[in-house]
Amino acid sequence: MAHYEWEPINGSAPTELEEKLLAYEKKGILVPPRRVVLNSEQIQGIRESSAINTAVLDEVAKHIEIGMTTEDINEIVHNFTIAHGAVPAPLNYQGFPKSVCTSINAQVCHGIPSSTVKLKEGDIINVDVSTIYNGYFSDASRMFIMGETSKENKRLVKVTKECLEIGAYAAKPFGFVGDIGAAIQTHAERNGYSVVQELCGHGVGLKFHEVPEVLHFGTKGTGMLLVPGMVFTIEPMINMGSRKVFVDRSNNWTIYTQDMKPSAQWEHTFLMTETGLEILTY
To 5 degrees, how large is the angle CA 146–CA 102–CA 105? Predict the structure, then answer.
């Protein structure tokens, strides 16, 4: 006899959501596990974590400037997070040595802060902050432009943010994860850019990384069903040149574009509601 994730527990009467998702399952559609459809108490905990995460990025925005080091950014993030009773999620996560990721120009993601790397005129930098508060996780990143940069860099940063917004708009309750990626890929490629395919958005909240994997490319109508109560990130990484990337083997973390052309990324944590996505982090 087939087992279905959304069969009523212990023979109890099925809820309306259980009935709906069981019907999807029986059609062969990939539905989320129960653990990632969160209750109001869990969602409130993620909201509180997200508020601190947003405040951390706001604090970075107040102080980031040409001439400061990426380690200076790390200290801002670490000290502000701890001062607000939270924990920087990246610190010691699978061996990551710092409290934030700082990725400059051709660095796609997972840049490691350093006291020897100074921000220069024209740099574009992604600051990726993740927070644990009372056991709940949140995650967001922003792009910052240092002084005056090229019009090509400005356009890349702008279109990448549009990709995030368009991907979020495409996500509807009882739609599919693939709807997000298809919308992002279409907009990026229409503007002459490529989408990094080796990294993705992810479920977040009770864990740092959870299902679903939110690809930023793909086909509409595919992937996991999107259900109210799910919390996940959308975080497109868009390259000015080729989509191909490589890992810096000196630290096994930082990812670069293979052609060393610039990359940009924006990220929010979202809650799926009955009417669409709600932004939890900015």
Answer: 55
Cβ neighbours, 10 Å, residue 122: 14
CA atoms within 13 A on the CB side of 264: 23
- Rounded to whole angstroms, the Cα distance separating 180 from 74 reads 31
Contacts of 206 (CB under 8 A, 6+ apart): 35, 36, 38, 42, 135, 136, 137
With contact defined as beta carbons under 8 Å apart, do 171 and 159 qualify?
no
| Reported pTM | 0.97
Rounded to whole angstroms, the Cα distance separating 48 from 96 reads 24
- In whole angstroms, what is the distance from residue 188 CA to residue 160 CA? 7
**Secondary-structure breakdown of the chain: helix, strand, coil percentages, each rounded to the nearest 5:** 35, 25, 45
Q: Note the pLDDT tens digit of each residue in 164-189.
A: 999 999 999 999 999 999 999 999 99
φ, ψ for residue 61, nearest 5 deg = -60, -35
Q: Which amino acid is at 263?
A: S
